[in-house]
Amino acid sequence: MNQEEYYTIDKVAEITGMSKGSIECFLISGIxxxxxxxxxxxxxxxxxxxxxxxxxEKS
Length: 59
Prior knowledge:
Layout: E1 6-8, H1 9-16, H2 20-29, E2 35-38, E3 41-45, H3 46-58
Antiparallel strand pairs: 1-3, 2-3
Helix pairs in contact: 1-2
């Protein structure tokens, strides 16, 4: 069984070097996909983070 790695919004901000607020804006706009695990708590799958980072590098 293949289990994907999940990241908190704080960890995504750390990995990308962006602010937490910027990451939240990308989530709200749908540019970065996430899963809501509880009210106000989101997780980003590693594969979605990888796609997001690849798109940033192209622009």
